[in-house]
Amino acid sequence: MNPAISLVDSAIVVAYLGCVLALGIWVGRGKKSLDEYLLGGRDLPWWAILGSIVATETSTATFLSVPAIAFATGGDLQFLQLTFGYIIGRWIVVVTLLPLFFRGRLLSAYEVLEQRFGSLTKQTASMMFLITRNLGDGLRLFLTAIVLEKSVGLPLPLSVVVIGVVTIVYTFFGGMKSVVWNDCLQFIIYIAGGIVALLLILQQLPGGWQQFWDFGVTTGRFQLFNFDFNFTEKYTIWSGVIGGIFLSLGTHGTDQMMVQRYLSARSQRDAGRALGLSGFVVLVQFALFLFVGIGLAAFYQQYPPTSPFQHGDSVFAHFIVTRMPTGIMGLTLAAVIAAAMSTLSSSLNSSATAALNDLYLPRKGPAFSGNAVSISRVLTILFGIVQIGVGIAAARISQNVVEDALAIAGFVGGIMLGVFALAVYAHRTQQRDALVGILTGALVVSFVKFGTPIAWPWYSVIGAASTIAGAWGSTLLQRRPHHKWDWAE
């Protein structure tokens, strides 16, 4: 396939990949202890963790798909209603769950479940995280590789391997410090890419900012609030606030990929500051990408494409490779790849941590803890190979299957939220009940996804509620005497 961009732009993308690799190796020099490798020595500044949190939850799908929401016919700003719930949910995590993670010197979020229920619950939760995280991020790697394939001209499997290998190498050498500092760099790059893209769109519109504003007003694209109470609509104030709260509680309160960042902070206060403020940064970030989408809609109304776009996700990518000047195009493509690598590196590091701490060491015993850093590095490579394999395999299946698999990968947040809620508040619940709750939640959310028209922002609410209901039902059937549990026991 012939590349869609110039040699200069291709060189910029390659140079970016080289810089990321060099930064990861440089930051990772001299790492010895497990705390240093997996948690950055628990000495990372709060603002770096803030950048890492936001970059980690921003993938290529976000970079390309959020503009598509506002670009679509009838598109608007209602997606931002979700961020209201995100902000509230994160502060709830700061108050309720963050203190649990700073009691003792935990490495994994799921150690809390072991302390409350037992090792089987911890291992089940960790396995669910590992399976869904690596499936989902392998598919995100595939989606990113499509951009590299169409722009630079590399074959799709080779594009998957290139992005995957670079991410593996800098995560392998640098551990958590490399991940966090690279996340900060990647955050700056993709935000700059979004700002530059918006400015170029405005510059290429004959009427500039005024034409952009008039287009948004006349087409209703600046509409923000939707007060309809309809479970089948994705973006309403109710699904945004309620669904957003539960989604954020699940993804930022129970996911190892996020919890590992909090544990890398210098203190609980620093971790709380980073997490709480991240919601506001995400709101601004999403607003930027939505404005890019409105700008693209105005631009392509003025200059219609030769053939209609088949998928909204391809619109921004099309503008990048056909309308951006040399140099700027390469930087923006680097931003697309940056958004992906920030998520993938975090995924590899957190997967290695969960597998080592929750699955490997408990079976091997303390005698093997001396080799923990080496084992963690080997696990990083193995999970990287798994994600590359998923990315290559995804090229052989339909886009709809990929989207469904990504939806399944997102189920875990609500289920894990339900289990953590049981651990903290349901004093009668025991390990068998928690496992019944997990199974119930998985079955119910799968049915809701594939058997009902209920919109995805409600999945976390339903997952948490069904997990709690299943566990409580099991508790009632057992009819055990009341036993109050607390952290002091």
Describe this structure in words.
With 489 residues, the protein is mainly alpha-helical. It has 20 helices and no strands. It has helices at residues 7-27, 34-39, 46-56, 60-71, 81-96, 98-101, 111-116, 119-152, 156-204, 208-218, 237-253, 256-263, 268-302, 313-323, 328-364, 372-394, 399-409, 412-425, 431-451, 459-478. Helix 4 crosses helix 14. The longest helix has 49 residues, at 156-204. The protein starts with 6 loop residues before the first helix and ends in an 11-residue tail after the last helix. Mean pLDDT is 84; it is low at 483-489.
Give the arrangement of secondary structure elements.
Elements: H1 7-27, H2 34-39, H3 46-56, H4 60-71, H5 81-96, H6 98-101, H7 111-116, H8 119-152, H9 156-204, H10 208-218, H11 237-253, H12 256-263, H13 268-302, H14 313-323, H15 328-364, H16 372-394, H17 399-409, H18 412-425, H19 431-451, H20 459-478
Helix pairs in contact: 1-9, 1-15, 3-9, 3-12, 3-13, 4-13, 4-14, 4-15, 5-11, 5-13, 8-9, 8-15, 8-16, 8-17, 9-10, 9-13, 9-15, 9-16, 10-13, 11-18, 11-20, 12-15, 15-16, 18-19, 18-20, 19-20
Characteristic terms for this protein:
20 helices; disordered C terminus; mainly alpha; 489 residues
